[in-house]
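User: I need a structural model of Carboxypeptidase regulatory-like domain-containing protein from Robiginitalea myxolifaciens for a docking pre-check later this week. Nothing fancy, just the predicted structure tokens so I can convert them on my end. Input:
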Amino acid sequence: MKRTKSVLLGLLLAAALPFSCSDYGNDLQYVKEGSIHVLFTDAPYPTNWIESAEFTVTKIEARLKTEDAESSESEGSSTTEENQGSPYQVLFEGSEVINISELTNGMTRSMGVSAVPAGTYDLFRVYVTDASLTLTDGRTFDVKVPSGSQSGVKIFVKPSLEVTGEETNEVLFDMDISKSFVLRGNTQRMEGINGFIFKPVIRVVNLGYAGSVSGMVTNDMEEAAPIAGAQVSLMAADTVYTTTFTDDSGGYKIMGIEAGAYTIQASADGFSASETIKLQIDQGSEVTRDFVLMPE
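Assistant: Understood. Predicted structure tokens for Carboxypeptidase regulatory-like domain-containing protein:
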């Protein structure tokens, strides 16, 4: 069974309206501001080969769109084009080691709160300098970090965030660990692994337009015991949207699901897979779906 893992970086944009004043004659200048609260979280990573997965974040930035810059910008723009008229607001700067294996099923890691000007934000950049994986046999591998350490990992959010003083916006950064941490060597057995290459693959969701699904996976025996490590797959148009795994209590939670129609299925070693169930996710919805699996 192919198992994947996601790491989630949540950005909470709480838009308050403090005022900045300066004296020009008898006039006061009022500058609207908001704030951004940065958190990390993770979905379960149940593979029995991995003991821990860590990476070091040194800076997180958000781009404030301006009227002068938007006509020529797109996801394919160069770094120079991105910065013309689009100031980057620093949300975090320092050195923070994140052990994503400790953050599961909705747990988060706060990176602090930063004041930012009110406006529209469409792009975030995360700077990573180091990453490592420790296997259950005790070996630790340092992961080669590509150019993201110099220019940052560029992550667009659609739709863009509108930061005002009237509401709180939240953004979820979902890193696919199976694609971001690429195994090297003979990946058919743990002893054959000789390293990793780090290629961050991140999905960004504006939680103001998203929902979640959670539930339990149990067996069909009389005691209905929970099944730990069961795989729960969410699919959109027959394509896997994201995958997570149950914890020791048999529970699971998938956050940051864009509004739309999906199907969901649970499976586990030694059990027959569940039926595929239709699922509708609406803006802000928190859907519950439980599964009962039969032994093979």
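Before docking, keep this in mind: Residues 79-83 form the longest helix (5 residues).
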